[in-house]
Amino acid sequence: MSSSDAKVPEVLPPEPSKKALTRSRKGIALAIAGMADLIQVAFLPLFGEGVASPFEDALDVGVAIALLGVLGFRWRLAAAFAIELVPGAALFPSWTAAVLSLNLTEPSAEAVTTVPRLHVEP
């Protein structure tokens, strides 16, 4: 078998478990996270500890599901969700900080990973 008979893929397939983080996805996620943090601060008495605490938990679960749908699973979002469950932590914009800390992974011609060709001498 010659080296020309072997078929080697030119480009590695994208990782199936993560969605590519494009500018538009990050913008949508940032809008969701910003609105959630703004609501938590603006309606602080409603989202305080005690009887009204389920409102805060419901908002956090809704935001987590929305961000999961837009961005896919990210450990930083899981950490932000854990921080949001701490009483009193709603004053810190953890959703917005988590989304802002994510790097863009927009596919471009320069960013495509190629597989090196193997040249076998007969």
What distinguishing features does this structure have?
122 residues, mainly alpha, elongated
Question: Care to give the gist of this entry?
Answer:
The chain has 122 residues and is an all-alpha fold.
Task: Summarize the structure in words.
The protein has a domain at 23-100. The protein contains four helices and no strands. The chain has helices spanning 23-42, 53-71, 75-84, 94-100. Mean pLDDT is 76; it is low at 107-112.
Structural topology:
Blueprint lengths: L22 H20 L10 H19 L3 H10 L9 H7 L22
Helix pairs in contact: 1-2, 1-4, 2-3, 3-4
Radius of gyration, rounded?
A: 21 Å
Output the helix-strand order: HHHH
Q: Give the assembly state of these chains.
A: single chain
Binned, the helix content reads 40-55%
- Runs in which pLDDT lies below 50 for 5 or more consecutive residues are 107-112
Task: Report the count of strand segments.
Answer: 0
